[in-house]
Amino acid sequence: MSQTDIEIVVDDPTAPEDDSPSVVGSGTIEILVCLLLLALAITLGYDNWRTGASWDATGPEPGYFPFYLSLILAGGSLYGLVTALVARRAASGSFVTRAQARRVMAVFVPTLLFCLVTQFLGLYVASFLLIASFMRLVGKIALWKSLLTALVFTAIMFVTFDIAFDVIMPKGPLEAAFGH
Amino acid sequence: MEALGLLFHGFAVLLTWKTLVLMMVGLVLGIFVGVLPGLGGPNGVAILLPLTFTMDPTSAIVMLSCIYWGALFGGAITSILFNIPGEAWSVATTFDGYPMAQQGRAAEALTAAFTSSFIGSLVAVLLITFLAPMISSFALKFGPPEFFAVYLLTFCSFVGLGREAKHKTVISMSLGLLLAGIGMDTVSGNLRMTFGSAELLRGINFLVAVIGLFGISEILLTMEERLALRGHAASISLRVVLSVWKDLPKYWVTLLRSSFIGCWLGITPGGAIAASFMGYNLAKRFSKDPESFGKGRIEGVFAPETAAHASGTAALLPMLALGIPGSGTAAILLGGLMVWGLNPGPLLFVEHKDFVWGLIASMYLGNVVGLVLVLTTVPIFASILRVPFAAVAPMIVVSCAIGAYAIQNAMFDIWLMLGFGVVGYVFKKIGIPLAPFTLALVLGNRAEDAFRLSMIGSGGDLKVFWSNGLVGSITTLALVLLFWPVIDGLLGRVGLTQRTRATSR
After folding, report:
1. Would residue A135 count as lying in a domain?
2. Is residue A1 part of a domain?
3. Which residues form the DUF112 domain (chain B) (predicted)?
4. Distance between A179 CA and the closest CA of chain B, angstroms
């Protein structure tokens, strides 16, 4: 059998380089996350205290259970903060390298734009724009292939969800023009 | 043998053209999801959940569980052919599966993987068929304190037995429980933690969070890595299948051992990943020739795959019988049950016989159909990987958005999904586990209700959790598990001191 031959090869020319410098260390991010969680715990804890975290005639008040949870969360994040600060002396690994950050942003920013466009022009227009431009600009795929894929995929989604399964998506002026 | 009669009834429910077609669709979609990078079992099921909103619950669960079986099968394809585990539980499969493919035995390895997956799930489904009705009828006697004790046990075992840093598990779990509490309080009807926002009134939907945490964050993580891949193409001939099956009886000890490990770890939360590694390591340890593992030994494929699938299937047992999911995917299926208006828990077996037995019957049928399907269509699915990620990634983003929006028809949920995507990305990179968060988010309200109802019943006396033998032993067990690392350490020290005394003597 000739199955030893490698038959499927996919290259990744824009792959992040291995020697790219680190943008930020994991230790720093860990400290940041713990601080944010601590702030969240305090905010939620305060809100629950305001709602009522003690007992009344009928039993525990609405804030009782979440109030103690915010205490646990605050405790956990404080502990995490201290360990992260102590461990900071030792070299911590890289959270993300510059090349990796560039690639992650290449997906994150279009996704963010996609959400914005969905809000104003509807999901299907946004979907077409996202797929076509992502394939063309990030993937460097031929324009006609990108447009065709985007069109076919969006059409399939529209037929599956809006028509076949009656799951209605947000729509904008374009769909309105066609009476949907 | 009441279970058998009900099971046959379940098959009768299933055997209509409509359900069979849905089953095939689910399996194909599932294998797709399992093969594609950046999509896995839990998020595949979460994204495709909206498709089922307008179906009746039985058809819906059949399709969704088939997506799950498909994803379990699909993970093995990329592990063996490309050395890329499609799912974390397929990592152990690459150890021997990929070397086999390199030696030109890809077809053999794939057949072994699919067959052992099938055997693993079969053992677990048999267990579910006979054990789940017993457990649920036992659990019918549970009151709120017992339920809270069981929830506590679930949470504590995550903290005590998880491999991540304890404080990170605690953070993830308390955050999940807190977010679950946002919105209307189910007992008193008061609003909590909404800060006057109308959007937060509805609360944070569990499925929206899951789609963001697993779907969006997975794409961000996938992009960070080098996406180049080289792999083998393989087609499976009947001759190879038969020759692997002929040798199966030789490996019955491995298969049985892995099935047991899988079932055990599947029922206790912890899951398929641990099961696959444990299955592999034990097979290696008990082997007469441990050196040959990692170099393309067929047992090295049998052991982890059987365990992973037994565990993935057994995770549905506590979900069906008690309403407590044993894995991330089971948690999402549980979220689905609530969307379809079913109340998970022991009453399910009484009130929705058709649904439960239809689901159990679909596990048998889905696995048989799935086995045949993957064996015949492997070449097609392997070639999906030729599709560039730049085309797949935006499609996944769109599917995630559709899924998130469809749950409550809210634009806010799309933004929430994006937010959870970032949270998931950061959490994964600094080692905060996501599974406890998911579980806490789906169980949060139920756990709180159980706690408050028992408190109301007892007049605020915590002793209610030790008021009888049953609830007392569950609560105690939960606390033992929570402090297990400490207890284990103490026991170790005692053992150590005795040993040193023995040697000094």
Report:
1. yes
2. no
3. 20-438
4. 20
Q: What is the pTM of this model?
A: 0.86
pLDDT cut 90: percent of chain B above it: 8
Q: How far apart are the first and last CA of chain B?
A: 60
> How far apart are the C-alpha atoms of B260 and B233, rounded to whole Å?
33
Q: What is the pLDDT of residue B266?
A: 81
**In 3-state terms, what secondary structure has residue A30?**
helix
- Whether A9 and chain B come into contact, CB under 8 Å, resolves to yes
CB-CB under 8 Å, A168 with B397? no
Residue A87: partners with Cβ closer than 8 Å, 6 or more residues away? A27
B403 contacts B45 by C-beta, under 8 angstroms: no
Q: For residues B434 and A88, what is the distance between their CA atoms, to the nearest angstrom?
A: 24
From A11-25, B64-78, B198-212, the region with the lowest mean pLDDT: A11-25
- Which residues in chain B have their CB less than 8 angstroms from residue A28's CB? none
Last-in-domain residue among A95, A114, A142? A95
Using the Cβ of B405 and the Cβ atoms of chain A, whether some distance falls under 8 Å is answered with yes
Record: contact A76-B171, CB cut-off 8 A: yes
Range of the domain at A141: 97-177
Which residue in the set A10, A73, A118 is minimally distant from B175, CB to CB? Answer: A73
Residue for token pair 């982890």: B304
Split into its structural domains, chain A has a count of 2
Q: What is the mean pLDDT of chain B?
A: 83
**Check: complex ipTM more than 0.95:** no
For residues A91 and A121, state if they share a domain.
no
Q: What tens digit of pLDDT does each residue of B361-406 get?
A: 888 888 888 898 888 888 787 777 778 888 888 988 998 899 889 8
pLDDT at A6: 58
Asked if B32 contacts B67 with a C-beta cutoff of 8 angstroms, the reply is no
Q: Which chain A residue shows the shortest CA-CA distance from B183? A: A62
Q: Look up residue A71 and give its two tokens.
A: 């205490």
